[in-house]
Design goal:
The complex is a heterodimer of chains A (583) and B (185). In chain A, 62% of the residues lie in helices and 1% in strands. By secondary structure, chain A is an all-alpha fold. In chain A, strand 1 and strand 2 form a beta hairpin. Chain B is mainly alpha-helical. The chains are: A mainly alpha (583), B mainly alpha (185). The A-B interface holds A 116-117, 120, 185, 188-190, 192-193, 196-198, 223-228, 230-232, 234-235, 238, 242-246, 259, 261-264, 267, 270-271, 274 and B 5, 8-9, 12-13, 16-17, 19-21, 23-28, 30-31, 34-35, 38-41, 109-112, 114-116, 119-120, 123, 127.
Chain lengths: 583, 185
Amino acid sequence: MSDHHNETFISKYIFSLDHKMIAKQFLITGMFMGVVGMLMSILFRLQLSNPGESFAILEWFLGDKWAPGGVLDPNMYLALVTMHGTILIFWVLTAGLTGTFANFLIPLQIGARDMASGFINMLSYWFFFAATVVLLISLFVETGPASAGWTIYPPLSALPQAIPGSGLGQDLWLISMTLFIVSSLLGGLNYIVTILNLRTKGMSMSRLPLTMWALLIVAILGVLSFPVLLSASLLLIFDRSFGTSFYLSDIVIGGEALHHTGGSPILFEHLFWFLGHPEVYIILLPALGIVSEIISVNSRKPIFGYKAMVISLIAIAFLSFIVWGHHMFITGMDPFLGSVFTFTTLLIAIPSAVKVFNYLATLWRASIRFTPAMLFAIGFVSTFITGGLTGLILGDSALDINVHDTYFVVGHFHIVMGLSAIYGMFAGVYHWFPKMYGRMMNKKLGYFHFWVTFISAYGVFFPMHFLGLAGLPRRYYTNSAFPMFDGLSDINEIITFFAILGGVVQLLFIFNFFYSIFKGTKATENPWRSNTLEWTTPIERIHGNWPGKIPSVHRWAYDYSKPGSDKDFIPQTEPLKEGETEH
Amino acid sequence: MNIKLRNNTFKQLLWIGMAGISMFFAGLTSAVIVRSAERGWDTFVLPEYFWCSTVVIIFSSILLVLSKRKVKRGVSPTPYIFSTLILGLFFAYFQFKGWGQLILEGRYFVGPGSNPASSFLYVLTFAHLIHVLGGIISLIVVTIKSSQKKYTKEDHLGIELISIYWHFLDVLWVYLFIFLLFSLK
């Protein structure tokens, strides 16, 4: 079955059909884009903490056109915010996270040679790569990249003449996003079919590791929600390029009345958020799955409430489709409809609380191994709680209206979605690095990376809640034009300090990652003493995963510290002993 | 991978893909529902040619059902698949004629003579036709393979896949047709 010896450089490293190599391609591309997106945030944070001040770094990166005299141009500020959001949400936390771990883990954890279709898998990456290239090209067009926010609300996104970023940059954004959606759909189709059909003997659905459940549900979410964004984008493209009026009506620009009549920008918001909210969970659920696995392995205890964890994943996914209106409470929505969306939104607190409770119950009185992966997993639980609590405020229409479009929202979603997902991603990289590269990452650097990231991330996003409560609107180029916000400038300086600190420490992670690929300590076959199938594969990575027969599965993935066993873990491949009952 | 597993895998891929396509059209038709409830929504009668398209695509589906029965009995399904292909081309022809009729009536996709109602009509029918073109290309491939006797009683996955997809396009068109009849009334 193993045919790795027939591979050439191109078929092994570039147009690879091997799920493990494709996973690495997603990871490295996601990391590169993460650096680009993070750098953008540092650049616009400089403007927010020191409005109108000159910084040589701005001119160095953006040139004289977009940062004349080292002062950030307002149009470029909008572009940086837009691209930062787009890159982090889609490129890093959707493709970077799911693309990496779905591709790497699905065949290994279910016991399959590869994905159902290696070719579709390869296409999925190369569509993503093409989307990346188009998006990066948009950074260099004369009128600048897209500037209408990652939510690309019309009319700003629909009228090329609106602002510089509404021109070619927005066109390229839409082309790039279309390629991205195709990539996501191809990947999602493959993940679902692989998990449903290619499980090894004995790997029933009730024995699937929670990472598999999470990735299966995420794939279903993506297949059902991304096409709706595609339909919204299609209508937007027609409005932009052909002059239709789906989202546009009664607009005057520069004294000239445009011909558009009868369109509604609110329509776009409905369509966009029908994807947009499931997208939050497309980002979050893989991290939930990864964290479930890592917490159980490093607690040396079975995950608490396996079935409840699966049911809560399904419940969160289902509810995510019927809550989109909470992003639109101030669009003139009927108050009754608002109360319906409030109700459905607050319902999500129930399965979310189940998950948090189960994590804490798993950790309770456990023999915890504080590996860097485990620290990030616990960090995830922390941000999931703090970000989730502020979600209760934003999910309630009566409360949301007061802080809508302020920094309160920015603080909330960065903590609950951004930090949680990125912690899940870091946890996953530290945990599965030995399986990916056959070597260990440096632990001390990992600890340092975690603590500085953890402190600086809270340092950035926690104070934003107070800015929001004080009324500071998000997306504004400068806060210095409004005397009522003068007292908040110190907080903005603190936020920027932590943003830079958090950004710099990620370079340490990148160093650790690449250094360890070549110089890290050689890993053993199962360094974490874990139960799941991927740790039964040989250290030498081969196309086909197992040299001989694929192992059969005899138990679930969470037999840690099982009474009666002489060791504190029992791999899934180990048959039940006589008289032994399955969990 | 054994034949049964391979067949199941490909069929599931198709079903899940069709679920995605359904969501794409659900997005568009829900946009019509939201938009048609507001002011400035034009009403008009659908072109007669779209009735012809509806009849043609339903009939083409029936032919594919027959082709599947034939191959299961070991009889060549090629004439039936080829006839489906011809009807598929007729469907596309009637769609173009329908758009021509709309233009003659002064209902445009874009520009001063357009209205969101007519724009949506063009988008929905065009998006459906793009998917039909995918089906037509698949039908050409299946017709060629069938004429080369590559399908057997036991293994005729290509015919099964195109049948599923073509029936889906049929149901989708009937849904869109009825939906547009009522939305534009």
